Amino acid sequence: MEHAEDIDVLVLGGAGVDTIVYVPELPLPYADSYMIDSGIHARAGQTGDFVALGLAALGLRTHHLDLLGDDPEGDLVRALHRDKDIALTAIPQPAGTKRAVNLVGPDGRRLSLYDNSRGRPDDRFPEDILRRLAAASRHAHVSITHPCAEALPVLREAGVGISTDLHNWDGENPYHEAFAYEADVVFVSVTALTDPETTMRRIAERGRAEVVVATAGAKGAYLLTDGELTHVPAAVPPGPVVDSNGAGDAFASAFLFGRLGGEPPHRCAEYGALAGAYACTVPATESAAMSRDALLARAATTPR
Q1: Total-model pTM
Q2: What is the 3-state secondary structure (H, E, C) of the chain?
Q3: In this model, does residue 154 exceed pLDDT 70?
């Protein structure tokens, strides 16, 4: 049983398995078949898993809560958390564990195919478990997977800080709005945004966000705080770029590491850029995150 603030970050949702397929190019031209010399690999690690992995690697006490099936995919997720020493509370999911297929091109870009049959509209986290974990946590990072939206009022009532990642939100889909307007820290990719600044300011004006971050891959990120929009340059990757899988999750983890450590938002974003750049050097078939020592060592050479 956790006691008050035994958990630095409670991660909600986003547990699952990705099947990684390295393809010769993206978009992939139609053909009857392709020979995949690099193999087809199933490994645990969706957005919540990778955020939890990144936070734990940075020394934060992390607890992951999600629904998992009694299936081979669920076994892979449980094994990842066990091997990385990340606390996991798995609520039984009769529909099965979330899964996806990621097609990865030679330049590291990906195309994800999500199986949305692994859930039911009435799925919920048991309120007693959610309240107990929230009461023991300093902060909660909420994935946009179902049923996390229904957990937001309980987290708000518990008084924990809340962050979320809207991923490739187009700024219009109403599903994302509950997350965008209830979180104190909001991450979003610019990928599908026609006007990132307008969307960022709308999030801040309509919701609770103290900080809004729009990540832009090799172009860096944009940070909105106290009404001021600034650009954070991308960090130089410490090795060859092989895969963009997990870069946004790594960014969020390192940003939260800085925030919980009392760093100002711009420094937190610099931490995020460093961790995101590192993630791009890790093949999608692996699950690895930047360590605290490595992050701080690289950050020490980054001018404030």
Answers
A1: 0.93
A2: CCCCCCEEEEEECCCEEEEEEECCCCCCCCCCCCCCCCCEEEEECCHHHHHHHHHHHCCCCEEEEEEECCCHHHHHHHHHHHHCCCEEEEEECCCCCEEEEEEECCCCCEEEEEECCCCCCCCCCCHHHHHHHHHCEEEEEECCCCCHHHHHHHHHHHCCEEEEECCCCCCCCHHHHHHHHHCCEEEEECCCCCCHHHHHHHHHHHCCCCEEEEECHHHCEEEEECCEEEEECCCCCCCCCCCCCCHHHHHHHHHHHHHHCCCCHHHHHHHHHHHHHHHCCCCCCCCCCCCHHHHHHHHCCCCC
A3: yes
